[in-house]
Design goal:
Layout: H1 9-53, H2 57-96, H3 104-118, H4 123-142, H5 149-170, H6 176-185
Helix pairs in contact: 1-2, 1-4, 2-3, 2-5, 3-4, 3-5
Length: 186
């Protein structure tokens, strides 16, 4: 049996479990929001296409501009969702290997980054992530290890790389007229 000294391993595991649960709830909320935005995006594409068919290029441009903004919001939400997914994987590792406390710092840094990204899109989610970060602080105080920036960067890079792939698979295909309109209007 490992001697943890002042470290209460069961309390630590419970904290990790609670944090994981709250992150999973946040992930579900993000998934619901992304699904709603995908439906809205499909509607925008349809309206854009319809406006083209009825010879209303200004209306089509309005829908095209809105769809570009919605796509960017979806991209940001997917990025945050993937960061949370990566953090959950690391939390599971941390829960199973409690002595490897150095994983907490990169997790905290990744959540700070996710909170910053989402703060302008869904402020309530940012506040919930900030609350989770405040719950991580006591766990971080247990550790004396320096922040492992390479692990933080790895979490963020994994999420960034996965965003583009997921975007291609989940977003509806915009109408061909949208590309023409965007090229014409620069």
């Amino acid at each position: 049996m490992l001697d943890h000294g002042e470290f209460n391993y069961e309390k630590f595991r419970r904290s990790i479990f609670r944090l994981s649960h709250r992150l999973k709830v946040e992930q579900i909320r993000l998934e619901q929001t992304i699904n709603e935005m995908k439906v809205y995006l499909r509607e925008l594409y349809d309206k854009c296409e319809s406006a083209f068919k009825f010879g209303q290029p200004l209306r089509a441009k309005m829908y095209a501009d809105e769809s570009v903004k919605v796509e960017e919001l979806v991209r940001q939400l997917l990025h945050v969702q993937l960061i949370i997914e990566r953090v959950l994987i690391r939390l599971e590792t941390l829960k199973e290997a409690g002595k490897i406390l150095s994983l907490l710092s990169p997790i905290s840094e990744a959540l700070k980054y996710a909170g910053a990204i989402i703060s302008g899109v869904i402020p309530e989610a940012s506040k919930r992530i900030d609350k989770m970060l405040s719950d991580i602080e006591p766990l971080l105080n247990i550790t004396t290890n320096a922040i492992d920036k390479s692990e933080t960067e790895r979490i963020l890079e994994e999420a960034k790389a996965a965003v583009e792939e997921r975007i291609r698979t989940i977003l509806p295909e915009p109408p061909k007229e949208l590309y023409k309109l965007l090229e014409e209007t620069g």
